[in-house]
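Worked Example 4.2. Read the sequence first, then its structure tokens.
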Amino acid sequence: MGKSVTASFPVRNVEFDIDESIPKYWHNNRRAVTIFFNNLSTLFPEGEEFFIKSLVAYRSQLDDDQLKAEIKAFTGQEGMHTREHIRYNNMLKAQGYDVDRMERSVKRLLVRVHRRLSKRGQLMVSAALEHWTAMLAHYVLSDDSVLEGAHPVMAGIWRWHAAEEQEHKAVTFDVYERVGGNYPERAVIYTAASFGLWLKVFQQQFDMMRQDGIAFNLREWADLVRFLFVEQRIVQRLGPIVLEYFDPGFHPWHIEDSHLLEKWKLDYETNPVYKKRVKQQPKVRIVPAPA
């Protein structure tokens, strides 16, 4: 019998108390800032299903048992993220946001990506977007002020998700390289995927602020700009990491963040917002992509 191979990171079955006790503007009562985080949450259920499908499409072609184990753990973690962000998004629906319409818009965009790109191109889109989630995760974990004043449950969701994005950040990249990925394709698709991601984020930010009646409130926009670009210095902090992807020798593990993970794991073991459940692996629903 072959030796059993274990992934380098675990699947944590964590549930959060997402209920009516969480205030609508849970990030320090800052409306536009709260909406920014909520906006990102609406992208995850469809986005993470796309990531999973792009990896699963290549699993049978790999002869590396360790990488196969990493794919299995990746799908487990992303399945947990999807479950909790669906619950998060249901909270947003109860607050009056038209999340269903926004998620349909994300799905239509990803269907177009599926139809226009090869399987390898879709995998590269996933790797590019996984780099963005890893960068944002680094941003969340590297400075406690990012979620300072936030409701503890919501801060817990974002830190848990960030930590696990750090743990599996190289899986899609490694599979892409294993199946013949090349630098010119990687650079072009990363550029296009980055533009598409942030265009969608801005569109949905405006849409959610419109639904909230503050789309034309200059003070709210100024507060969001102040939070991102002055208080958090997001350009200075993430700019160099964004550009690293264009280095032909880039690999996700070149960005050292193990100390951030170790710090979070200590919090995970003691913080009561993380409700550990016994079963460790969710069932991940893989829906066949449209022809």
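Now turn to a second chain, presented in exactly the same format:
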Amino acid sequence: MGDPLPLPPRRPGAKRSRQLPERPLSREAIVAAALRVIDDEGVDAVTMRRIGQELGTGGASLYAHIAGKDELLDLVFDEVAGEIPVIEADPKRWQEQLKEHLRAWYAVLLSHRDLARVGLGRVPTGPNSVVGMECMLSIMRAGKLDDAVIGYGADLLAAYVTSSAYEGSIWRSGVAATPEEGEAYHRELEAYLRSLPADRFPTIVSLVPALMGDVGDDADARFEFGLDVLVRGLVARSKK
């Protein structure tokens, strides 16, 4: 047959078919492609067929490396967990360290669109996830919390971080796609709450400044408030 011939010149105005670059197919490449899709479009855009297209192959070829979409999402979630810094527990600053760990976890999830929803209702057990789990538990153990408090507390803290991040992604992509839309919604909501009959809803009306003020609008401030309440509660519960 001889060497392959070069491509002939294109007729003026003709379009050449788009050729996707060949990429080596591996579990790591599949996970990286899925994460790119999530960062661009969200979790719902992830399908085996779509990831195959991202990699220039058919979706069926991915099944030699990944069992299916559920496993793929678990792998992506674990990959992202590797972005969370590991902290060496210090008994003298364990409360602040615990908050630092949870802040980092929250920030990482927020940076990947709605990936946080993958962690809801699941116990991540991948290699990066268990490193993060060990980090959080060791910090709590350094605080001399009761074992039962650590067990329940770890679950509570994980749910708080994950749900807070997911709510943030919903707000950014749905309720308020732009800061201007968010501000407009808050103005309308505040006006609505103030318009409620004070004789029937005296508590709501009296709390509108607190509900809609800086604390109400600042997601980071709300998250910090929750962290403080939860950590203080763990300490108080452990002393009983």
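Notes for the reader: The two ends are 84 Å apart (CA to CA). Confidence is low (pLDDT under 50) at residues 16-21.
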